[in-house]
Amino acid sequence: MGLLLITVFVSVMLGACQGQQCPHGWTFALGNCYRWYNGPDRLNWYDAQNFCQHEASQDCGWPCNSNLVSIVSGEENSFLLDYWRTSREPVDPSLGQHYWIGFSEIGLTLSFEWSDGSPITYNNWDNGEPNDGSGVQFCGVMWKGVHNEDIGTWDDQPCTLEKPFICKYRL
Ligand SMILES: [Ca+2]
């Protein structure tokens, strides 16, 4: 009986991350779990990445290897744009103009790489980006566009700005 209970417990714990079900508050798509953080959760890029790796990872009850979201295909970019559009708070359209993605050039290579180690298979930089404006833009965002038209292109911005963010882990 004890062994059965242990087996069930381990199965449930594993299933929380490895089954086809994401924890409460997370959304399943493309084999991954995603969660949007906004409002009081606005953080600079470094703290957002740290949040995804630690606080957010606790949701699944298992080390889920959650990181700031990586985007490896146009399909994933489209999903995320839609997820962002339907998740953000509509109270102030000037807020939520951008959210952090896990693409940055703060690592040892000094070139853009995904914080979760995903290979660079896709990009959706806006025209003229990344432009490293004022020499201080090392972290990537997805943005809505000048007129909030939800274009979902990417921009590099100063990593110290506080923004909403999306965490992701592979099921
Ligand atoms: Ca820029």
Short description:
Keywords: Receptor, Signal. The protein is α+β, with helices and mostly antiparallel strands.
Give the helices and strands, then pairings:
Elements: H1 2-18, E1 27-29, E2 32-37, H2 45-53, E3 67-68, H3 74-87, E4 98-104, E5 113-114, E6 139-143, E7 153-157, E8 165-170
Antiparallel strand pairs: 1-2, 2-8, 3-8, 4-5, 4-6, 6-7
Bound molecules: calcium ion.
Residues 129-131, 133, 137, 155-157 line the site of calcium ion.
Q: Provide the spatial order of strands within the biggest beta sheet.
A: 1-2-8-3
Largest sheet: 4 strands, antiparallel
Domain tally: 1
Question: At CATH's second level, what is the architecture?
Answer: Roll
Give the overall shape.
globular
Question: In terms of structural class, how would the helical and strand content be classed?
Answer: alpha+beta
Could you explain how this protein is built, in words?
The strands form 2 sheets. A 4-stranded antiparallel beta sheet has the order 1-2-8-3, sandwiched between helices. It has a 4-stranded antiparallel beta sheet with strand order 5-4-6-7, with helices on one face. Helix content is 23%, strand content 21%. The longest helix has 17 residues. By secondary structure, it is of the alpha+beta class. The N terminus is likely disordered. The relative contact order is 0.22. It has 3 helices and 8 strands, in the order H-E-E-H-E-H-E-E-E-E-E. The site of calcium ion has 8 residues, from strand 7.
